[in-house]
Amino acid sequence: MRVALTSCAALYADGLVEIEGDIPGRRIFFGRVDAPLPEIAEPEHAFRSCRLLAWAVAEMQPELDGFLRRHGRDRVAIVLGASNTGVDEAENCIDESLSRPTDAESRFPADFRFSMLELGAPAEYLAKATGVTGPAYAISTACSSSAKAFPAARRLIAAGFCDAAIVGGVDGRCRFAMNGFNALGALSQGRCRPLAADRDGICLGEGVALFLMERDDGGARGGVSFAGAGESSDAYHATAPDPEGRGAEAAMRAALADAGCEPDHIDYVNLHGTGTQANDEMEMKAVRRVFGERLPLVESTKSRTGHCLGAAGAVEAAICWKKIMGGQIRCALSNSFAFGGSNASIVLTGGGK
Questions:
Q1: Which residues does the annotation mark as catalytic?
Q2: What is the value of pTM for the model shown?
Q3: What CATH number corresponds to the domain at position 20?
């Protein structure tokens, strides 16, 4: 499947900035999107993830117009990875409601909609914003969400439900998520340092990345192809990874097999690389078992973007895409691992496949 990156917020920018107020009594580094985001009038979609999508649609409009003319709006699907939806805005509304008199006609603001909390809300908004009428849904498996969107979209195309798809991920800044990771003791005391011996945790981030996926017609050369994916579910623990990385290894091996690649075909691995002691240790154990002594270039880009949660897989696929298009690498493996042992790896290749 050919994939064309059309928009990615904060790509390659050092977006980690120090913020305060989201976690009581603590300043943290966060991967913030500083681009001016469009406002959205509809209350059910007036939350930050949809505003990030609105920015992305504006960025991709020229490519999108041609894409939709080629395939037709009814033959295009939307598959997004997301996890936070409108949680932050809902929290603001709840805080506001608690300050209202108990005998008020409604304790919630007039523009509050519970539907902003639905996991499919970002996909619903993107369908409306683009006019796409094919299947549209979101995958929410925490940090593996948008990596899983790629094989999910490919399955829709292969099954004949659509001819092409808009694929990616989005997650906006969310205090609930920040405080949750803080409660787990998982946040770094400063900037995250994946793979460093003294690493002490993650930095969170927000982001959006969207791709246009379509068949490689006639095997034409050029561009970037989504060549394969591997998914596993080891269910080792609710939040901790399997210390030996068996689920991570299974996902990587399955992705290579699906892509028809031997390990020595891969010349770049974008690690999940969160910066916690447990994740980085298990992931490198798995990488060494898969690749043996001939390790490709490995790195974690979360030190620049922060951990974008449901958008992480798509943002990191975008970094792989840019490296391939820039001629730096030919074949990339990108890892995304999540709570509950939900693991996904995808392979992107250059020059068509």
A1: 143, 272, 307
A2: 0.94
A3: 3.40.47.10
